[in-house]
Amino acid sequence: MNYILTNSQMREADRYTIERLATPSLYLMEKAGQALADEAERLAPRGKLVCVCGGGNNGGDGFVCARHLLKRGREVVAVYFAEKSSSECEINRAEFEMLGGKIKPTLPSGKISLVVDCLFGTGFKGELEGKFEETAEEINARRGKGAKVLSADIPSGLNGDNGSAARAAVHADETLCIGEYKAGVFAGDGLDFSGRVKKADIGITLPRLEEDSHAYAFLADAAYVKALLPKRKRNSHKGSYGKTAIVGGSAQYSGAPYLSATAALRGGAGYVTLFLPEKILPAYYLRSPELLLEPISKGSRISFEEENFEKLLSYDSIAYGMGAGVCAEVSKGAAYLIENYEGKLILDADALNSLAKYEKEGLETLFKNKKCSVLATPHVKEFSRLAELTPTEILSDGVTAAKPFAKRMGVTVLLKNAVSVVTDGNKTAVNITGTSAQAKAGSGDVLSGLVASLCAEGLSVFDGGILGAYLAGKAAEYAAERTGEYSLVASDTVECIGAAFLRLATEDTNDDRDGE
Known about the structure:
Elements: E1 3-5, H1 7-20, H2 25-43, E2 49-53, H3 57-71, E3 76-80, H4 87-98, E4 102-104, E5 114-118, H5 130-144, E6 148-152, E7 174-178, E8 181-182, H6 190-194, E9 196-200, E10 217-219, H7 222-226, E11 243-248, H8 255-266, E12 271-277, E13 292-297, H9 306-309, E14 317-322, H10 328-340, E15 344-347, H11 349-358, H12 363-368, E16 373-376, H13 380-387, H14 391-396, H15 403-409, E17 412-415, E18 420-423, E19 428-431, H16 443-456, H17 461-483, H18 490-495, H19 497-506
């Protein structure tokens, strides 16, 4: 399992390893610096190397890295100008100098093959200032001239919890997380600044792992999600793979439920039925001949009538709310399903917006009394309405933002952002597949339909959310290879869902050890 730690969790792990397990901190620093040196040589087998070291233990890792590179015969310079430093950093600075290593206050002139960024670690917050800002800007300028940048643990200037970037934060080609992945390399601006993300095991032990295996968020990488793929037997029929209902639509947003339904078809469910307001239903005839069509209400938008919603109760999964509009009738429909349905209910888009507006006072009671398994799939703004938090508060909490709400409400949340976080209030998974091309209308509709299909096939809403987010992200990546990120539309993603399934099912994931 590849875990993702917050700053406080990483400090706890360091303290536990050093104090309780009696592992010398200098030993851990030696291992970290050696791992950085190995990666630096892989990235730049020739040319001059520069290790930019701060005064903390991150800087100590940099001096160890520089020493190992020097002993291997590489041309290496350390940059150091901190006024204060940790005792471990001082020891390793002295050892580097004893070997004849050169220390300069600024990056040397001339061509540089690689900069190892050890200026600040995960505890950084706020803005880089003075000499630190100038140095980070110079690192970025050298990168613009062809030098590669390897960051230790996290690019300097990124917040380790939420990935918010200082104005002069370092842009890395690769980030080597020491011990475990850090939340800040994935949350917020993290992926834009971190480049390829890898990790190095140096022997740090996670203290709460044995007593609480879900204490830490984990990365939903290819190896993990491949194990979630629903098994399919030759001796089977369409009834073997479940029935899913897609419920939504209005005259204004007629495309949203269609995108969900076509994604559900690609997701593998045996039957997919699209339930629409009666007045707009004729527009869907034969658009996709594999779909079953049913009216959910009269008129051009959803209105709640119990006899119509009763038809949904026999389905294995339901995705509800895409393109439905925000109104009391949509909220009534959501409340009815929460109270009466016993399958797997995916609440998306206007189902969530309507509940937030019309059921805010009774929302916790409603969810606590549910009969079904619920997956809510909000983006940050939708989640802010639902949880009564500001977007800033949500973003500042990084990968942990949705966990308290999920636990309090007894639901699973798939929080959509630059990365997707899936949590049931106990377990938390982080999916990093995807592309900026998904920042367009319809992408969430594709996701909701795909997840509903996977849940109809037998996955829990937690596992269905993880696998659906992974596949939707990969499908968008594959589609963008053909269209480019500017021109991709959600229906392009639907067309590549099959490719995402195929590659995941057939590729060897045994060596999947990094966050790329």
